[in-house]
Amino acid sequence: MKKLNIRQMLVLGGAALVISGCAQVGPNTKKGALIGAGTGAVVSGVTGHNMVTGAVVGSAVGAGIGYLEDEK
CA 45 → CA 2, 10, 52, 57, distances in Å? Predict the structure, then answer.
């Protein structure tokens, strides 16, 4: 498993900070993004793939599903 270096962590943290200030989101969107990020990271780690990519994809999918639930 590849370890994250400090540059990658700073870039990811900065991107998360910028994105988080873009809009107000509903509670289901936040919850879905957190659950998706955690699930994506765990599944990617277990299968031997890149955990960061899994977390990003999982977060996007979870936020999308949460957003749809907020719009109902």
Answer: 10, 20, 9, 13
